[in-house]
Amino acid sequence: MSISGGIDLQQTTLAAEAVYNGIGLHSGREVHLLMKPAPADTGLVFIRTDIEGRPQIHATAANVTSTMRATTVEEHDCKVFTIEHLMSAFHALHIDNCYIEIDAEEPPVADGSSLAFFQALKAAGVRQLPAERKEIVIDKVYRIDDEEHKRFVMVLPYDGFRVSFTSLNPHKLIGVQYENFEVTPEVYEREIAPARTIAYEKEIEALRSMGLGLGGTLESVIVYNDEGWLNPLHFEDELVRHKILDVIGDLRLAGPIRGHVIAVASGHALNTSLAKKILENLG
């Protein structure tokens, strides 16, 4: 594996500030998000403005501490969770450096997709910086398996960024879904970003008893039961598209990647394990 300037030769940041406010999916708390330009080699850094000293949490695979229903990063005894949708938008827009000021433990859920984040960042604009871009060029196969549940995620050499995902769900409404995208900003905005989080109705009460999903509504989560969908779908195969959205966000914790991601029934645990493996190889 090597680090290269890639197709986009220079690092990037936002051209202006971007703001998005809303409710956290799991916490149910109001959240204010301010995304600000940052210098070269900063990376993507969360700043907890609700805590004295404004501690920083670098969005990197080395800082992942939990993957239960969402991806959590932690540093200096402070954490942010459910970051995968926001990270996915950064990845798709090739934004390398940003200060992400946040006054709660998780970003707003918006409508359960990454579209609001993508559009806010896109409206702010992307500016090049006078430093070479550090793209991770995959030069061999990296794979993480969950043999017990017959799941895996892998990345192999490819001149671009492509994701192929197979989702396996025993429910009659969903079943096997497959999608394959060459991920460009245009394709991402149209085909991936609008795909929302999905939940089974019987799971919701159990999640809430664990303090999760407290901010979820039919405006922010697609819910299904044994009879059908409780809200209209954006895509017939919205589940697998959201899985692709998630893996793009989780793998951004390794850095901007050039390669072909192939996954079967992968989730945050496998995704972030692959990101860690990629980072360890760079070390």
Descriptive notes:
The chain is of the alpha+beta class and 283 residues long. It has a domain of 126 residues: lpxc deacetylase, domain 1 (Ribosomal Protein S5, domain 2). The protein is 23% helix and 34% strand. The chain has 6 helices and 19 strands. The strands form 5 sheets. Strands 1, 12, 13, 14, 15, 16 and 19 form a 7-stranded mixed β-sheet that branches. Helix 1 crosses helix 2. The longest helix has 15 residues. It is globular. It starts with a strand and ends with a helix. The model has no long low-confidence stretch (mean pLDDT 92).
Summarize the structure.
By secondary structure, this protein is an alpha+beta fold.
Q: Indicate the percent of residues in helices.
A: 10-25%
- The secondary-structure element order is EEEEEEEEEHEHEEEEEEHEHEHEH
Known CATH architecture of one domain? 2-Layer Sandwich
Kindly report the name of the CATH homologous superfamily of one domain. Answer: lpxc deacetylase, domain 1
Uncertain ranges: none
Biggest beta-sheet profile: 7 strands, mixed
Whole-number average pLDDT?
92
Shape: globular
Radius of gyration (Å)? 18 Å
Q: Care to count the β-strands?
A: 19
Cα separation of the termini = 11 Å
CATH topology of one domain: Ribosomal Protein S5, domain 2
Please work out how many helical segments DSSP would assign.
6
**Which CATH first-tier class of one domain would you pick?**
Alpha Beta
Q: Which percent range describes the beta-strand content?
A: 25-35%
| Protein structure class | alpha+beta
